[in-house]
Design goal:
The chain has helices spanning 21-32, 54-67, 82-90, 167-177, 179-185, 237-251, and strands spanning 3-4, 43-45, 69-73, 109-111, 130-133, 147-154, 158-159, 162-165, 191-193, 196-198, 201-204, 207-209, 212-214, 220-222, 232-233, 257-260, 266-270, 274-277, 280-281, 288-294. The protein has 301 residues and is an alpha+beta fold. It has one domain (15-294): Clavaminate synthase-like (Double-stranded beta-helix, 4-Layer Sandwich).
Length: 301
């Protein structure tokens, strides 16, 4: 049985309501004013992940508010202590972890090359590239990923870089092209991920839902994968045109896309922005990234 997200209910005066142009234009002007132009603008050096200083917290918060993402650079090089990951997440209101199928027992996933039966067939546990996506796009409507944290213990010898793009910017560029594209991608059956079936057993049912939705707290959420197989788009001309336009935005490099490779002690904290991963090769030390997915939205003190 296919799980379908309930229709979007626009938030009053929301700039993300495709029929509210006045609110959108005001938000758009504020969004683009002083928007960062390089990955370095997102980086914040921190001394202790267990307890950020007021200045460190403010620096990360300001980047999150502007771009929905920030990169911390800590002194905890090559640490495997997941308590640090939990600690920095909690300082931004991130508590409820998504204990997905391939996660570790503590619900924080060790992203490394793994060839056992559990991980076999899942690209994040290989050296292969991963296309544009937001995490948890196959989750049901009540368990969407609103917070994402990636912490680098060890980078690959070569490759393994990430491209990052603020999902609000993707929305903005798409709406500027045609507001009807937004309406199409807000349809509750815009994107369907077929059921996950292995050896005749259904591990996860098919999941349908919008690409863009607005939460009651006013936040814009994006659910997306750039995959070409194992995906079904709503079969109408406007939706297919909107998808093509979105893909063009993602694949045509713009100043709103940031590219970099996390180094030991560095981490990305975000509102589940769009991201990729390039192919990589391991050397003497294997690539290891900790990934924490949260059902919570980022909150500020």
């Amino acid at each position: 049985m296919t799980s379908v997200t309930a229709p979007l209910i626009p938030v009053f005066d929301s700039p993300f309501d495709p029929t509210n142009d006045a609110a959108y234009q005001a938000w758009r002007e504020q969004k683009l004013a002083g928007y960062p132009t390089s990955l370095a603008d997102l980086v914040v050096p921190v001394n202790n992940l267990l307890q950020l200083t007021a200045d460190e917290y403010q620096a990360i918060s300001s980047r999150l508010k502007k771009t929905n993402m920030a990169i911390y650079a800590s002194c905890a090089e090559a640490t495997r202590d997941k308590a640090l990951i939990r600690a920095i997440g909690r300082q931004f209101g991130l508590e409820r972890l998504d204990h997905n199928m391939c996660a570790d027992n503590d619900a924080i996933t060790s992203l490394s090359v793994q060839e056992d039966a559990l991980h076999q067939g899942y690209i994040p546990y290989t050296t292969r590239p991963i296309a544009w996506h937001t995490d948890g796009y196959y989750n049901d409507a009540d368990h969407q990923i609103r917070g994402l944290l990636l912490h680098c213990v060890q980078p690959a010898e070569s490759g393994g870089s990430n491209e990052l793009m603020d999902h609000e910017i993707a929305y903005l560029l798409l709406r500027d092209e045609n507001p009807q594209y937004i309406e199409a991608l807000m349809h509750p059956e815009a994107m369907t991920i077929p059921a996950n079936i292995e050896n005749g057993a259904e591990l996860r049912p098919a999941r349908s839902g919008p690409v863009f939705r607005v939460y009651p707290d006013g936040a814009l959420h994006m659910r997306y994968t750039d995959r070409n197989r194992s995906i079904e788009w709503r079969n109408d001309s406007l939706t297919l045109e909107a998808v093509a336009a979105l893909k063009a935005i993602l694949h045509n490099q713009t100043s709103y896309q940031f590219t970099g490779t996390l180094q030991p002690g560095q981490g990305l904290i975000s509102s589940n922005v769009l991201h990729t991963r390039t192919q990589f090769e391991n050397g003497e030390h294997e690539r290891l990234i900790y990934r924490a997915r949260y059902f919570d939205a980022i909150h500020f003190q």
